[in-house]
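Worked example 3 (structure in, sequence out).
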C-alpha cells in the first residue's frame, strides 16, 4: 500500500513538471518546428500507464491536408502549454520526437455579474 502511495505521488509530480525544465522555465519548441510542424489539435488525453514513470499520452491532430493522425507516447516526450487567450484554437507542434500541446484550460471562471429576480425557489427541472 505504501509503495502505491509513493508511486502515485511520483506520477503526479512528474505530470506537474512535464512542461518545465530544471530551472522552472517552460520548454518551448524550436522556432523552425513551430512554423513547419504546427497542426490543429483534435484531442489530447493522458491515460494511466501502469507501473511506468510517466502517463501514456494520446494526441489527435490534423495535418495540412486535414487528415487526422493519432500519436501515442510516454508523457516524458510531451509538453503541455496552457493558452492564455480563450479565443485561440488549440494546436500541437511536432519538434523532432517531442510534442508540444497548446490547449485551453480545463476550467475557466467568468466574473461577469448576473442580474435578475428570483421568482420561485422550487426545484429546477422536476416534473410534478
Amino acid at each position: 500500500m505504501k509503495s502505491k502511495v509513493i508511486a502515485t505521488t511520483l506520477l503526479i509530480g512528474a505530470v506537474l513538471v512535464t512542461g518545465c525544465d530544471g530551472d522552472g522555465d517552460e520548454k518551448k519548441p524550436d522556432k523552425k518546428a513551430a512554423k513547419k510542424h504546427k497542426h490543429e489539435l483534435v484531442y489530447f488525453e493522458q491515460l494511466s500507464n501502469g507501473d511506468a514513470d510517466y502517463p501514456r499520452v494520446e494526441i489527435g491532430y490534423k495535418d495540412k491536408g486535414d487528415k487526422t493522425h493519432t500519436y501515442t507516447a510516454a508523457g516524458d516526450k510531451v509538453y503541455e502549454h496552457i493558452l492564455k487567450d480563450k479565443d485561440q484554437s488549440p494546436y500541437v507542434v511536432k519538434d523532432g520526437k517531442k510534442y508540444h500541446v497548446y490547449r485551453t484550460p480545463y476550467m475557466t471562471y467568468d466574473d461577469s455579474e448576473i442580474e435578475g429576480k428570483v421568482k420561485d425557489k422550487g426545484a429546477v427541472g422536476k416534473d410534478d
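Notes: The chain has a mean pLDDT of 76. The chain has two helices and six strands.
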